[in-house]
Specification:
2 domains, Four Helix Bundle (Hemerythrin (Met), subunit A), single chain, three-stranded antiparallel sheet, Arc Repressor Mutant, subunit A, mainly alpha, 235 residues
């Protein structure tokens, strides 16, 4: 069955995916949490068919697990695995940046200009949702400019994985300074892409990946394991 399309161009299945993905990235659906199909339908205010469509896609993305007869489980945070995945993401992001510099249309470049301006005007604070929304839009624009479906399918779940990790870090271990540093690195990367300065853009991309890698030690050392998986009982 094909799900209906909204006035904004997204099918109900795509809307369900976007809503559930946001709940996962901002840890409103907690790592390790198990829920029924009815629970998810209620959380996103959509019917069974679009939610099933979204679940299949999120399962392929390894963001949740379908458990026969027991609903679905939000994939716990595995710091060891995600540290390995960052190595993959680093290489692919650099490839995407090079493609985006070569391929970006005038329309995409105009949107990148606007996005850079919005990031500069963004106020740092304890709530990083506004930044996450701009970060997600930046990821989407660069993938659109790169115009390589295989890369998009690979990077999309990685973006959500690290958006969730960044949200966890900032919520419990970060500060306004770390948010501002993150914002500035994204601005530097965007500026270099807009200027078509490939060496500068790749350098900015590596600095951003380095910033993410630095989160792992404090997350492992200072954060209660129950934040990584709700099934782990606090000491």
């Amino acid at each position: 069955m094909v799900t209906k399309t909204s006035a904004y161009g997204l099918s109900q299945g795509e809307q369900a995916y976007e809503r559930i993905e946001s709940l996962i990235a901002h840890m409103e659906l907690k790592p390790g949490e198990t829920m029924t199909m009815a629970d998810l339908q209620e959380r996103v205010s959509l019917g069974r068919t679009p939610v099933l469509e979204a679940i299949r896609k999120l399962s392929d993305d390894t963001l949740l697990e379908v458990r026969a007869g027991r609903g679905v489980r939000i994939t716990p945070i595995d710091l060891h695995r995600e540290r390995r995945l960052l190595r993959i993401r680093r290489d692919i992001e650099c490839f995407v940046v090079e493609l985006a510099i070569d391929n970006a249309s005038g329309l995409v470049r105009s949107q990148l200009h606007q996005l850079a301006r919005m990031l500069r005007e963004l106020k740092s604070g304890s709530d990083i949702r506004p930044f996450n929304e701009l970060d997600k839009r930046m990821d989407q624009l660069l993938l659109e400019a790169a115009d390589e479906p295989f890369v998009e399918r690979t990077l999309r779940p990685l973006h959500t994985t690290f958006r969730r990790l960044g949200y966890l870090y900032q919520s419990h271990l970060g500060s306004e300074r770390t948010v501002q540093e993150n914002i500035q690195m994204h601005v530097d990367m965007l500026d270099a892409i807009i200027e078509r300065d490939t060496p500068k853009a790749l350098s900015a991309t590596h600095l951003l990946m380095d910033f993410m890698e630095e989160m792992f030690v404090p997350l492992e050392r200072d954060l209660a394991p129950s934040y990584l998986d709700v099934n782990i009982k606090p000491f």
